Q: What sequence folds into this?
């Protein structure tokens, strides 16, 4: 069976004072059934990895460069992330695709770099509101999966996160039927291509304490990629508890 994962994306939020939230989360979940991941800003990653060492909480980056090193001012390589103690890296998030113009091919190259560095790639896919309104959701997701995932992906080195772009940070959430439709498509596509039915599939898009249990009850949803609700231990803890109970 696919591993369950509660992943928090802090985005461009957090300073050293916010490490207290991680300590509180560790205290609240000494032995969770699911995996717990927090991806903080790069400035906190090493400190958070040290604080979480020996606990159930894992850490990850929010992006990496496709090259192992070089003249790329401001970028971070997968090897550098691994050196901080990180185990994962988010790739192809809709904000990276929109704000930085990242293509499927670039995401695929980054995923290869992540895997080469021993990191688990959390590869994001999702449709815009215009694409959903046009009835293109499933074709967009299928295309992004085909283009963003290298042939080396397995359930061990890859997690897939479906994040409808129009639901991220807006408070809007697809119906459970809509979520199920996309997650069923992803499971079928990944099984057909890789012969691996156990890749972890996350839902991301305005996941909150009050809707987490309903989302986790959907077939082929193995966890969540959580934004704002992961910044506070109390909120994220409720989501983790809901996943453990699912």
A:
């Amino acid at each position: 069976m696919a591993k369950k994962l509660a992943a928090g994306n802090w985005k461009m939020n957090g300073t050293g004072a916010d490490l207290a939230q991680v300590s509180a989360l560790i205290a609240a979940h000494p032995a969770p059934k699911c995996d717990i991941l927090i991806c903080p800003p790069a400035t906190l990653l090493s400190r958070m990895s040290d604080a979480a060492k020996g606990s159930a909480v894992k850490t990850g980056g929010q992006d990496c460069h496709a090259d192992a090193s070089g003249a790329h001012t401001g970028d971070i390589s997968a090897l550098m992330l691994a050196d901080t103690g990180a185990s994962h890296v988010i790739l192809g998030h809709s904000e990276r695709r929109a704000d930085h113009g990242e293509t499927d091919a670039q995401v695929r190259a980054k995923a290869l770099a992540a895997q080469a560095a021993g990191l688990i790639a959390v590869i994001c896919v999702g449709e815009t509101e215009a694409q959903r309104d046009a009835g293109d959701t499933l074709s967009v997701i299928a295309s992004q999966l085909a283009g963003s995932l290298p042939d080396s992906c397995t359930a061990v080195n890859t997690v897939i996160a479906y994040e409808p772009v129009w639901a991220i940070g807006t408070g809007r959430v697809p119906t459970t039927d809509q979520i199920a439709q996309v997650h069923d498509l992803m499971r079928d596509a990944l099984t057909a291509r890789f012969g691996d039915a156990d890749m972890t599939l996350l839902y991301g898009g305005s996941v909150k304490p009050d809707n987490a249990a309903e989302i986790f009850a959907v077939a082929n949803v193995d966890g969540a990629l959580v934004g704002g609700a992961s910044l506070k231990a109390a909120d994220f803890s409720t989501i983790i508890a809901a996943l453990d109970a699912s």
